[in-house]
Amino acid sequence: MPLPTPTFVAGLLLLLYLLSFIVFAFIRVVTGVSIQRIGFSGLRRIAFTPKDGIRIEVRGIGFTVHRPTFAQPTWLSLYLTEVKVTVDVKRLREKPRKKKAWAHWGNTKSGKSTPEVVVEEDEQEDCEEEEPPRSRTWERLTNAKEKIKRLHRKVKWIRLVDLIASSTTLVVKDVGSLQVGSFYMNVDTRRKTVDRSRLFNHHKPSPNKEQRPAEWLFTLRSVLFTPEGKDSIEILDHCTLNVHGMLYKELDGLRDASIALKLGRLSIPYDDVKICLDRAKDCTATSPRPGHTRSQSHVSFDDLLDELDHSGSREESIIRTVSDSKEFASSILRGIQEFQFAVSFLGVTKQIQTSNDSNPAIYLNISMKEVGMDLLRLDPRSPAHLMYFSPNDIAHQGSSQPFPSP
Q1: Which of 177, 357, 362, 405 is deepest in the core (most CB within 10 A)?
Q2: How far apart are CA 67 and CA 84, in angstroms?
Q3: Pairing of strands 254-269, 336-353
């Protein structure tokens, strides 16, 4: 059998490259994900809109296969280049337009047919939206927590991959942007390396139980904050977040978690942050709906009578909100063994006098160095816990002391 010639191989590669455009077009029609082309290191120019008002653009996605080392214990590295997330707050606040269902066509005397629109679904959605927003917030937080717990079922596959993203930008339209120079994430399940720190030595893996340690590592570098129409400001030079815990075979999620958050040089421009928050409030401020105008702008005598008939409605809503928040907070506190926070430099800048023709602007600068805080959960059987709390309560003991620079 004769060997293929270089011309045949080049033609075959060119044909496969052209067929990729057809595949990308099919993917865009089916899923809405737009992929421009294949590059030397992976896919190039990916864009999609998961929701009205949110658009995600990625310049490049690639991966490299390598042998695991002590510093990088993974087999596959996933690279994301120039990720840009654009958020339009006004479009997010708008109610999405949905297609209305048409009923049967009725015949009139003139021979013309007129459609009847079924609006029962819209009325049901309006009734569902009357649910208190706080209750929906706690429900979403609980669902997110359960998804994170179920994610640890696949930790044996996740530990093989690490994520590296460069030049990630979050743009809020008409407000400002936040850019992260580099981002790194991986999970380490090696027993000898994970339990090397004092922070993670509270619970050693027991040889009699099927459990193993796991540590999530997140690293950020060069965080830039850019208000709309102003210059960029570096608010954080680097940040590391370590989340350590125990994985049990019969339970989901991390148990006895220890969290360590260490920041480098943190600078907060108070005036620019305040301006961006005011702009965000202006974007989210929408006109009241016709059905809710009366309850928000004018209170009539009928409204007072209705409130007297349903006097317990607001109390029930408050009680439900407090119960939901207490349940969510207690579930989080039960799983946290220790929390450590450290920042090497913290600075806040505020303008106290604007500049004019004769006098320059005056700024107030506040700075602190080597700020740290450590919270440790008390043992329910210890005397320190029983002196102030019951055995069923969850208590954390805190201390503030200088920490070395991260």
Answers
A1: 177
A2: 30
A3: parallel
User: Rounded CA gap, 57 and 352, in Å?
Assistant: 39
Q: Say if CB 323 and CB 340 are below 8 A apart.
A: no
Q: Strand locations in 196-276, DSSP E?
A: 211-227, 233-248, 254-269
Neighbouring residues of 82: CB distance < 8 A, sequence distance ≥ 6: 57, 58, 59, 60, 166, 167, 168, 169
Q: In the numeric block, which tokens belong to residue 275?
A: 């301006």
Size of the chain in residues:
406
Q: Are residues 78 and 163 in contact, defined by beta-carbon separation less than 8 angstroms?
A: yes
Q: What per-residue confidence (pLDDT) applies to 194?
A: 58
Predicted confidence at residue 106, as pLDDT, reads 46
Would you say 223 and 179 are in contact if contact means Cβ atoms under 8 Å apart?
yes
User: What is the per-residue burial (b if ≥16 Cβ within 10 Å, else e) of 72-81?
Assistant: ebbeebbbbb
The closest alpha carbon to 214, from 252, 182, 240, belongs to: 252
Cβ 235 vs Cβ 314: under 8 Å: no
pLDDT digits (tens, 9 = 90+) for 316-352: 666 776 676 777 777 777 778 888 889 999 999 998 8
Helix and strand counts by DSSP (H, E) for the chain: 11, 16
Tell me the C-alpha distance between 200 and 191, whole Å: 11
Q: What is the mean pLDDT of residues 206-226?
A: 82
